[in-house]
Write a structure and sequence with these properties.
560 residues, 66% helix, alpha/beta, disordered C terminus, disordered N terminus, 7-stranded mixed sheet
């Protein structure tokens, strides 16, 4: 149970592995879906040879895939808000099965390029809803469900090239047919195990993501991602040709790349962010990625140098994906799904253009030039980010206030009650009321609405309506005791450090004489205990952690 979070993350008695079958079904499908990113890398040279195509023609497999994915992001919200998450997932899975099988049966590069576009549409519909579905279906803990999604993402990105290499060693058609078979299994599992989801009350408009891009902060980070993705997909789409490796060798190299990307996005990105700040870290990793591409351009004739550069790039890409997504969520003035759709539409444009252009540049000039152009595009992305530097000045502020209810009375001691939506919230409120009554104190109820970032996706742990309900119920409970009370909802984006920092900051602002939290009664993952520990370490006010099992009502004094 996260100290301050949502209905889904509270009252959790399960753990990472104690999830419903529906969660496991979607997680399996996620693995296969994420395989599609690097699945074709090992077989690009083989397709070019067997179908007598140039590198630029073969790289249209990436162009069509990402171009349609980007455009489709504008409609995923419209579709899911009208038909529900389960139907959207199933349509996406069905499209992936159909078009991956058709691509495997194709006899020309043009046909494969066209079918990859259909694959991109299916992938967009699936990926746009998968994380939210996993979190919504979780009963073994939201934190555990998110970790499971992270594991599926990492496994898919890393093993996609490996599977492509293994099946591609038999035939270049193998990876396409393999995806169709595996995703068919995922389709059946989701159809049978995932409960039907209700249609959302709020419908998203097709124009909403475009209108969101009028906000300069969101447009700036979107354009930064466009140029960064130009470099990213230059590496992903073009590097297999100058590497000069066989199908299995390419599979192993890009397996290493995917593994490093997955690990750094989860573990390294938050640490660098805490140490250097979000924007500074972005400059650092973008700079290193530009240097990496520059080195690939200078040493294109060295197979060893290219291998090391491709695998090293995974670290820069993993960190950047996570931090750019988090930046989008923090600076966006609109709902998360709308902001994500607009941002993805822009960023995938770079991914669509880069592979084809890289192939053409190699044909027109030399094999070195595509990497130089990719490095230049990343530098342009850094300049775009710098142009909006002032817009991101408050990016590392741990929270932003969404709602304020009432005001704290002047010249009265304050107890800060940080509550979640779990079953222990009323008990914690009773404890705060008892202490406040004994010491003539007022209480501020603080509820943190968390948004978790997973690589290049994000999910809200609760809806705005649920957050309002939690706050209103706790305020009403305190008011019934005659306790002076105020409340606020704040939003954080990131890991356990941000909710803790939000609590500590509010305790400082209110000069709270006591902070009341509820201990997790089971370990649902890394967030609950980590948040409490950080509050205890950083807060200058006394911190009372209530044991929900014993339901204690301590009467110790507030003063230290």
């Amino acid at each position: 149970m996260t100290t301050v979070s949502s209905a889904g993350s509270t009252g959790e008695s399960g753990g990472l592995l104690r999830q419903p079958k529906a969660v496991w079904a979607v997680a399996f499908a996620c693995v296969i879906a994420f395989m599609g990113i690097g699945l074709v890398d090992p077989i690009l040279p083989a397709i070019a040879t067997d179908l007598h195509a140039s590198p630029s023609q073969v790289e249209l497999l990436f162009t069509s895939y990402f171009a349609i994915t980007g455009v489709s992001m504008l409609v995923t919200g419209v579709v899911s808000s009208r038909f529900g998450a389960k139907r959207t997932l199933l349509v996406g899975l069905a499209l992936i099965v159909t078009f991956s099988a058709l691509a495997g049966a194709s006899g020309s590069v043009g046909a494969i390029v066209g079918f990859r576009a259909g694959w991109g549409l299916g992938n967009a519909l699936f990926i746009a809803t998968a994380l939210a579905v996993i979190v919504g279906a979780a009963s073994g803990g939201v934190a555990g469900a998110i970790i499971l999604y992270e594991a599926a993402l990492g496994l898919g990105i890393a093993t996609g090239p490996l599977l492509g290499g293994l099946l591609g060693g038999i035939s270049w058609r193998g990876p396409f047919f393999g995806t169709a078979v595996l995703m068919s299994i995922g389709f059946v599992a989701v159809l049978a195990l995932l409960p039907r989801s209700p249609r959302p009350d709020h419908h998203t408009s097709l124009a909403d993501p475009i209108r969101a891009l009028r906000h300069r902060s969101l447009l700036t980070i979107g354009l930064t991602a466009l140029f960064y993705n130009f470099g990213f997909f230059t590496l992903l789409g073009y590097a297999p040709f100058p590497l000069g490796l066989g199908v299995h060798g390419l599979g192993l190299v890009f397996f290493g790349w995917g593994l490093v990307l997955a690990v750094t996005s989860v573990f390294l990105a938050p640490r660098l962010q805490r140490r250097f700040g979000t924007v500074r870290t972005l400059y650092i990793v973008l700079g290193f990625f530009a240097v990496d591409l520059l080195a690939m351009g200078l040493f294109t004739d060295s197979q060893l140098a290219l291998i090391l550069a491709v695998i090293s790039a995974g670290a820069f890409l993993g960190v950047n994906n996570t931090l750019v997504t988090e930046t989008v969520m923090k600076v966006s003035p609109v709902e998360r799904p709308v902001a994500s759709a607009g941002y993805s539409f822009i960023r995938f444009s770079g991914g669509a253009i880069a592979p084809y252009l890289a192939g053409k540049l190699a044909e027109w000039f030399s094999p070195h030039v595509p990497f130089f152009v990719g490095a230049g595009a990343v530098v342009i992305g850094m300049l775009v980010l710098a142009s909006g530097h002032a817009l991101f000045a408050s990016l590392d502020t741990p929270s932003r206030t969404l709602r304020v209810v009432g005001e704290l009375p002047a010249n009265q001691p304050v107890i800060l009650l940080a509550v979640d939506a779990g079953p222990d919230g009323p008990g914690a409120t009773e404890t705060a009321a008892e202490i406040a009554s004994q010491h003539g104190a007022a209480v501020e109820v603080l509820h943190v609405r968390e948004t978790d970032v997973v690589n290049d996706d994000a999910v809200d742990r609760e809806s705005a309506a649920d957050a309002d309900r939690v706050l209103d119920e706790r305020i009403r409970q305190l008011a019934d005791h005659g306790i002076p009370v105020a409340g606020r909802i704040v939003q954080t984006t990131g890991g356990p450090a941000d909710p803790a920092a939000a609590i500590v900051r509010r305790a400082t602002d209110t000069r709270a004489e006591l902070v009341v939290l509820v201990a997790p009664h089971a370990d649902p993952g890394r967030f609950g205990r980590a948040t409490i520990r950080r509050v205890q370490q950083a807060c200058s006010s006394p911190v009372l952690v209530i044991d929900p099992e014993r339901a204690r009502h301590p009467s110790e004094r507030i003063d230290r």
